[in-house]
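Please check this.
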Amino acid sequence: MNLKQRWKALLENAGIDTKKAKNDFQVLRSHYRESHRRYHTLDHIEAMLGLMDEYRNVIEKPIPFELGIWFHDVIYQPSGVDNEEESALLAERLMREWNLDPETIHLATEYIRSTSGHFPRIDSFDCNLFLDFDLAILGSEEKMYEKYQRGIRKEYDIYNDEFYYPARKKVLNAFLTRERIFFTDLMHQRFESTARANIKKETGG
């Protein structure tokens, strides 16, 4: 996938002046290429865009959905406590500069904010599906999941094992306590059982 061309196509579909916004791709790319990132990179964005293409026919409002994908991890510091909010604020600022309509801005930024805790802030199929795409890695095949595990650990290498592993286990076990990890029937049927197996293996549950 050519991400630069994908970005340009999104801007054109949204009616955004590409001359005004073309440099913003470089801003996004520079964030996603930060040296401390191992999983929250452009590869993750590309994976979500791939799922979007696969399920495009069921997405009600694709423009805010895709904007949410591009921006949802643009600010990512492992020690940060407000990455999602900072990402949403950056997205909102740029979208206002592009003169996007208020509904698109609202939806895209609420999708981003919903990734904090992974609970939908909007009662909509699109918001649920957005969160499911973000968590699809949990239901990936064994080798990909192990690569994800290693990437997350490297991102959090500022913390020693005694701190990291109990904290990681707490986060993962919170997903296991949910009735469903994935909100939509589509993603529940596709990923739920594998995700639970992967988490239980990682946590020793």
